């Protein structure tokens, strides 16, 4: 079994390298589909595979930057990126990220980085899972009420409508974002990006875990535009984060390169899949991934709480995180293939009708 383990020269630990390949390819698919770097799964995944938390954060950010560039280019071709909104949000993202990264260095100095980051992950994942499924439940209730009243609900309507309240805050300058189809104060996306950038620096994520739902529920973006715009932001924060964590000596570039090979392929598959799976299909799948990630981190923590069962909990955490990534990637790939086949069949049928008519 020694063949399956490789020494990471900077972190000084031996890692199960097939796990890196699975994480890279699978999270590439998932990240391109959900509009995020997938770091919310990779950071705990790397930690579960054996990386110290600070190295898991830095390595993940380095891998994430390159993959997000590929995904952003693909989403841009589909018109899913609001570049104006993304550029405005860079202001808050970079400042928030550096503050978060400095806090991680302090946590490491006092020997609390693993404990604090894991607890923050659990709280954040629980809140996001609640928000996503509360939104889905409320939207379904609105659908039932509209059906009973004999009317059709707006396809862009959401269950949670916090963005409508926030749009009433008219602090200049006011800006219109064409692709996102919203008009709001420029300070709203700047504040959101600062908050998500800060969390990104602390948790080792591109911010996508928080920013994608924040763009939907607080800024008011349609899901597919939130996906593309978020990836643009992930790319920016990832490039900046890779530089700052490498400078601080907490990046294992060898592991990042292994993951990036598979991630670059997977990211394109995930991006194309958003063409066939829209709106609430994306949100429900996202919510399920958040729940799976929450459980894997909890199992990892239980291994320390109950040492006698440590091996079982550690193994279960690894199986869960890799199994979830693989299963969700397979689901997205299958839905993409089914959608592509249906699109080709529809085009052939249309051509046949034109031929008959002529």
Describe this structure in words.
With 358 residues, this protein is mostly helical. It has one domain. It has helices at 17-34, 39-49, 53-77, 83-109, 113-148, 162-166, 187-203, 208-219, 223-247, 253-273, 279-305, 310-357; strands at residues 5-8, 13-16, 174-177, 182-185. A two-stranded antiparallel sheet has the order 1-2. Strands 3-4 form a two-stranded antiparallel sheet. Helix 2 (39-49) runs parallel beside helix 11. The longest helix is centred in the C-terminal third of the chain and has 48 residues, at 310-357. The model has no long low-confidence stretch (mean pLDDT 78).
Labels describing this entry:
76% helix; 12 helices; mainly alpha
Main β-sheet description: 2 strands, antiparallel
Helix content: over 70%
User: Which secondary-structure class do the elements indicate?
Assistant: mainly alpha
- H/E topology pattern: EEHHHHHHEEHHHHHH
Please, how many helices? 12
Which strand-content bin applies to the residues? under 5%
- The number of E-state strands comes to 4
What is the averaged pLDDT score? 78
Q: How do the helices and strands line up, and which of them pair or pack?
A:
Blueprint: E1 5-8, E2 13-16, H1 17-34, H2 39-49, H3 53-77, H4 83-109, H5 113-148, H6 162-166, E3 174-177, E4 182-185, H7 187-203, H8 208-219, H9 223-247, H10 253-273, H11 279-305, H12 310-357
Antiparallel strand pairs: 1-2, 3-4
